């Protein structure tokens, strides 16, 4: 492979959102590294998503806390980068302007093409593409952006902490499964299966399958659920809601036998760590964010068969019932899924 000169191999990628959206950049980043580009990741997000990437994917990390520093960084790195990649999630004027200052070209996804901006290389949104494919499309043609296997998402060489077992007093001689019972900072009821259902399923699993350890993770917005699960009082149940950093959760998933939860960042991390997964999808589109279509043996999605979903998403949203998923009167896409069905699917999928 003939390499471009060093000056033309400097690429920047902007990260402005959560863990899941960060992981969905992995296929693009792996291809950039395969072509031996030098990648600078610019993190302008409240989450510690930088811990997901090591030097096998990233050459340099930049952390931006304020919008003023965005402009300062751009001015001090005027036209340093050959290309600057932004996906559909970011449409702020200051970030777009700053990216033009520090890069000769900005490549991003737009729903409506702006033909008058010669600084931008516009990549139109493609309805059939998943979010990860849309990111990969920033680099490749439409044909070469199709992802056919979960291996595109695998971390090349994740650096793991083996002492996570001691830190959280995990049982060393048991298989363990990671559960996530809430997602979206507990602000997305259209993604969250009722807690009473999770209680039913986890109680049954802990009671019938004592040879396995169930670990519940979650952020500080979900600590109100902790007391409900503590009442179950099982020795093989470890409740770590609000007690872990992102890096801790990363390592807990890496040291587990599988992930059971929702459409969330931890689902994407589990796939990137080559774990078997089972996820309940409510209003969000499994074709944009799921993995069962790539590998049904290892990745399962539980979806209610109702005509109004998926109603959440930046493209392909079904607005036949509501325009805003938060305004759904009953969240039937979640409430119609029974604990008995989910329990049986877990037992079957993970061969318990």
Summarize the structure.
The chain has helices at residues 19-23, 26-34, 67-76, 93-102, 131-136, 164-167, 195-208, 226-230, 246-254, 265-272, 286-289, 332-335, 339-349; strands at 10-15, 38-43, 60-63, 83-86, 106-110, 120-124, 175-180, 212-218, 237-241, 259-262, 277-281, 299-303.
CATH architecture of the largest domain: 3-Layer(aba) Sandwich
Total of DSSP H or I helical runs spanning 4+ residues: 13
Please state how the strands of the largest beta sheet are arranged side by side: 3-2-1-4-5-6
Per DSSP E runs of 2 or more residues, the count of β-strands stands at 12
Nearest-angstrom radius of gyration? 21 Å
Low-confidence stretches: none
What is the CATH C-level name of the largest domain? Alpha Beta
Could you name the CATH topology of the largest domain? Answer: Rossmann fold
Number of domains: 2
Estimate what percentage of residues fall within beta strands.
15-25%
Note the main sheet: 6 strands, parallel
Helix content: 25-40%
Q: What would CATH call the homologous superfamily of the largest domain?
A: Glycogen Phosphorylase B
Mean pLDDT: 89
Shape: globular
User: How do the helices and strands follow one another from N- to C-terminus?
Assistant: EHHEEHEHEEHHEHEHEHEHEHEHH
- Which structural class best describes the helix and strand composition? alpha/beta
CA(first)-CA(last) distance = 47 Å
């Amino acid at each position: 492979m003939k390499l471009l000169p060093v000056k033309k191999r400097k690429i920047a990628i902007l990260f402005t959102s959560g863990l899941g959206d960060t992981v969905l950049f992995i296929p693009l980043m792996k291809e950039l590294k395969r072509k031996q580009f030098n990648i600078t990741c610019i993190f302008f997000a409240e989450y510690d998503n930088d811990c997901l990437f090591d030097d096998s994917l990233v050459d340099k990390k930049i952390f931006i806390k304020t919008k003023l520093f965005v402009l300062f960084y751009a001015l001090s790195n005027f036209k340093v980068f050959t290309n600057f990649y932004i996906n559909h999630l970011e449409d702020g004027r200051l970030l777009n302007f700053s990216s033009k200052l520090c890069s000769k070209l900005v490549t991003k996804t737009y729903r409506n093409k702006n033909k008058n901006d010669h600084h931008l290389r516009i990549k139109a949104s493609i309805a059939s593409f998943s979010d990860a494919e849309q990111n990969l499309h920033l680099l490749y043609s439409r044909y070469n952006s199709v992802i056919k296997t979960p291996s595109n998402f695998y971390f090349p060489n994740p650096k793991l902490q083996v002492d996570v077992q001691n830190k959280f007093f995990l049982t060393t001689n048991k298989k363990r499964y990671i559960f996530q019972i809430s997602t979206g900072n507990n602000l997305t009821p259209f993604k969250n299966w009722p807690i009473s259902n999770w209680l039913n399923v986890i109680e049954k699993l802990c009671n019938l399958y004592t040879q396995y350890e169930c670990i519940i993770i979650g952020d500080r917005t979900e600590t109100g659920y902790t007391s409900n699960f503590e009442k179950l009082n099982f020795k093989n149940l470890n409740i770590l809601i609000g007690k872990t950093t992102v890096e801790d959760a990363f390592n807990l998933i890496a040291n587990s036998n599988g992930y059971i939860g929702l459409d969330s960042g931890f689902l994407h991390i589990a796939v990137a760590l080559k774990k078997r997964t089972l996820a309940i999808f409510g209003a969000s589109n499994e074709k944009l964010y799921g993995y069962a279509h790539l590998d049904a043996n290892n990745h399962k999605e539980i979806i209610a068969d109702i005509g109004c979903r998926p109603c959440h998403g930046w493209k392909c949203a079904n607005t036949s019932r509501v325009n805003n998923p938060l305004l759904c009167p009953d969240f039937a896409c979640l409430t119609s899924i029974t604990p008995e069905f989910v329990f049986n699917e877990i037992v079957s999928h993970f061969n318990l």
